[in-house]
Amino acid sequence: MKVALAGQGAFGVKHLEAIAAIDGVEVISLAGGSPATTQEVAEKWKIPHWTTDLAETLAQPGLEAVILATPTQLHAAQAVQCLRAGKHVQIEIPIADSLADAERIDAVQRETGLIAMGGHTRRFNPSHQWIHRRIANGELTIQQMDVQTYFFRRANTNALGKPRSWTDNLLWHHACHTVDLFGYQTGESPSCANAIQGPIHPQLGIAMDMSIQLKVPAGAICTLSLSFNNDGPFGTFFRYICDNGTYIARYDDLVDGKNAPIDLSRVDVSMNGIELQDREFFAAIREGREPNASVAQVLPAMRTLDRLERSLARDRDAG
After folding, report:
1. Staple partner for 96: which of 29, 76, 84, 315, CB 3.0–4.6 Å?
2. Rounded distance between C-alpha atoms, residue 106 and residue 54, angstroms
3. Alpha-carbon distance 72 to 292, whole Å?
């Protein structure tokens, strides 16, 4: 399968690392944001074609699919561009930074019949898969998910500490992971959704701290704390408080409530959530089926984020 990657930054490289472990997939083109770094990444990973023009990448002979690891603000337009060009597309989380754009991608996917998938890695991490299977088997029922998403982003840098050409967003990017996962694990969309945020950063123009509460009709709740002001260990930590046990997930690792490790080695073919996400994308294309984390499946999370954004705007106006 001949595929292309758009985005030469930190997450683009993570996808290249993942694809290197997957047989039968060849990255034939890299579309980047700046010539120097795009060429550097293309040469390092022996990608035969590179460009700063996505249209040029889409015109490459034999290309079947594209993974978008570009700035969030570009996701919707580029996803539609890929689908209109007849290419399957995986869009890194979030698929868009507005509900209207997310719904536009969904509409074009339905029109074209191509695969359009969101990069919702938490659905694929072995830690969360382990929990999901036990919920599906009736062994666990979630009472509360308590989640902390903490980074130190007072300067505009990416996951590698390099300067970023765009501004990240706590709600539409980082909260999206948990909002979608909570719905995926409970099988329901929130009936109650509340959010408050701290001061707006004077240079970045975004809230640096946020607190979100969710509740689904069956009663499970989610408490999510997010910060770009955290000067300490960073990442996202999920505590599942269930009727039959407590579990703490840190990306691809899982421990119980007493910090005893849980063996995840047999959950899937890899311990790398991004690799498993990419494997699902390629398998769905080969098998002609809807993937886990399709655009249609992640739309409920986007609707919840829109609801939260509107409530934050009302609070801002009232304050």
Report:
1. 76
2. 20
3. 21
